[in-house]
Amino acid sequence: MPSSTSLIARARNLPAPLQGAFLMTVAALLFAVMNAGIKLAAEEGLHPFQIAFFRNAFALMFMLPWLARMGFGALRTDRLKVHLWRAGIGLVAMLCWFTAIVVMPMADAVALNFTVPLFATAGAAIFLGEIVRARRWTATIVGFLGVLIILRPGFVEITPVMTLPVIAACFMAVTVLIVKSLSRTEEPMAVVLYMNLLLTPLSLIPALFVWQMPSLRALLFMVFVGACAVLAHIAFTRAFAKADASAILPFDYARLPFVAAIGFLLFGEQPDLWTWVGAAVIAASAVYIANREARIAKERPTHRPGSEAVKVKT
Question: EamA domain spans which residues (predicted)?
Fold first, then answer.
């Protein structure tokens, strides 16, 4: 059986688009586990706004040893304004998303949140100058149709609370484009550190309005959530350094089967047959896009991720 070291070595030898796909899949798994931690903390009486604050605070604590080792020079940046925009927009997305995770079945929330790649693919083509050809557009749209299979509009009642993941998705799509822009000039760890450094004080403001003393069990869940958040965002950010945003974002769809399994095991949530049919459609589109990108990379060996013109306002 191959050792973990040999598996990592093999992953590093993959074409850059496949490395990006692998990292995004790892991030999807970690985000799914983090969502379960959020729901468990809410069952201990924590408000979603408090959960957002503790998630950011504990994630920042996990980042401090890295900052101490690298020194404050690691925070050197000429794009502080971009980091601030990312934090502010990310906070709105986080509050909507955490609330949705708490009040909805996780698989339903994740399925609705899958509109992020569709918005971000269009944004990547318009604002980042990425070349998105017809086949990638088609595969991305097919993935979105998989989400519609899961939701079955017209057959299942759509409630106001279902707008929360969609609102979160709109803001997340903006942060995705900002991360793509930042990944071209900033170190991945610096991007993650700035996010937590800025989000911690920002998220404290709404948390104060609903504050109540957390239990020890709730705090332990939040430590776990913070650790998952750091690891997930590192993988997420590094994925963007390996491949175009429109190529790797479909692998975020892997969150759905991960979340469905966790939701069933921990909370007794049972996605129906249509959830799995939709997930299969989504996964098929994601695999096609990865294979397509690998072929393009072989045809253009001099192409490097991030070489496109950056058109995002800073």
Answer: 20-151, 165-289
Domain extent at residue 91: 35-299
Cβ(125)–Cβ(246) under 8 Å?
yes
| The two structure tokens encoding residue 106 | 């996780």
For the whole model, what pTM was predicted?
A: 0.77
Report which of 37, 27, 28 is spatially closest to residue 267, judged by C-alpha positions. Answer: 37
Coil, helix or strand at residue 156? strand
Q: Is the dihedral of CA 262, 53, 21, 246 positive or negative?
A: positive
d(C-alpha 218, C-alpha 44), whole Å: 6
C-alpha distance from residue 294 to each of 138, 247, 288, 300 (Å): 17, 10, 10, 10
Question: Coil, strand or helix: which one is 148?
Answer: helix
Kindly report, residue by residue over 221-275, the tens digit of the pLDDT.
999 999 998 899 788 878 877 877 667 767 877 888 899 889 999 999 987 788 7
Domain membership flag for residue 211: yes
Asked if 225 and 40 count as a contact pair (C-beta separation under 8 A), the reply is no
310 part of a folded domain: no
